Amino acid sequence: MGKIKMINLGCGDIFHKDWINIDFESKSDEVIKHNLLEGIPFLDNEFDVVYHNNVLEHFSKSKGEFIISECYRVMKSGGILRVVVPDLEETVKSYLRQLNAALKNDSIATENHEWLKIEIFDQFMRNYPGGMMGEYLTNKEIRNAEFIINRNGAVVEQLLNQESLNSENSSFKSLLKKHINIIRGRFCKKHIEFYRIGKFRMSGQIHYWFYDKFDLSKLLVNNGFVDVEVKAHGKSKISDWHHYELEPRSSRSTYPLNHLIIEARKQ
After folding, report:
1. Which of 102, 158, 172, 263 is deepest in the core (most CB within 10 A)?
2. Where are the domains of the chain?
3. Beta strand pairing call for 259-266 and 225-230
4. Strands 75-86 and 259-266
5. How many CB atoms are closer than 10 A to CB 97?
6. What are the φ/ψ torsions at residue 252 (nearest 5 degrees)?
7. Could you name the CATH architecture of 6-87+211-266?
8. What is the mean pLDDT, run by run of 10 residues, along the chain of 267 residues?
9. Cα-based distances in Å from 31 to 39, 47, 111, 157
10. Which long-range contacts (CB under 8 A, 24 or more apart) does 137-145 make?
């Protein structure tokens, strides 16, 4: 039996040399730069494993369906798809728990409740890097840091580092400067602001949909997948899954609580 062929879509900075890694931007020779809205750039029935983590929510519902259909197309019969997305069900349950505790004047629950509202809405609404989540994590004393990190993992640990957030803003401003000269002098400040916001909202930070285990499972089944199963962190039908470390835990917690992991098979 030959070596299995695996592809990691929207990999960001987390990838492995044994996989084919694809992302919208590439900072490594190990990562292919490609826009998934143009499809997965491989032939039909080519991969034994397709994986994407925190990718699907960055596409609209209809475009997400296209991405899943592309996953099915490039997979071999019997291949495994593993999808990780923010979990709407868990987030709503957590919100209600913290809301009920806050109504009883629990001060920490009040802060948790504030964070959860930001966590839910900011990723859909933000118009600048980091958004309200970045402001929350850098501009105040944080008494509920453990709660936030347990929910969101390593990404929040990075935002807790002010230098990291400033670096992100700096990178965005540098990119914006390259484009702003094209329109400077032709439009008023209002139009420049429209351009800035539009450029940011198309950059990949924004969430366009929120999945729970019901609608994600339904999406997979509707696209031909079978044996759809919710998985715990670290559990997978993918051979040697632990070896690749594509779902690292936060250094201060287990894998983020607000994530849903589902695997399915192409018949």
Report:
1. 263
2. 6-87+211-266, 88-201
3. antiparallel
4. antiparallel
5. 14
6. -110, 5
7. 3-Layer(aba) Sandwich (3.40)
8. 88 95 94 96 98 96 97 98 97 97 97 95 88 81 87 74 49 50 57 75 84 98 98 93 87 77 97
9. 16, 17, 39, 24
10. 137/165, 138/162, 138/165, 143/108, 143/111, 144/108, 144/111, 144/112, 144/115
Using the structure block, give the residue that is written with the tokens 């803003």: 169
Cβ atoms of residues 91 and 116 within 8 Å:
yes
Which amino acid is it at 26?
A: S
Residue 40: CB atoms within 10 A of its CB come to: 21
Residues 252, 74: Cα–Cα separation, whole Å? 37
Q: Tokens 């924004």 belong to which residue?
A: 206
Helix or strand run (H / E) with residue 195: helix 189-201
Residue with tokens 């899943």: 68
For tokens 């914006």, what's the residue? 176
Tokens 């997305």 locate to 85
CB-based burial, 191-202: b 16+ in 10 Å, e otherwise: eeeebbeeebee
What H or E segment, with its residue span, contains residue 263?
strand 259-266
Q: Which two tokens stand for residue 162?
A: 């002010």
Please state the pTM of the whole predicted model: 0.83
CB 147 within 8 A of CB 153: no
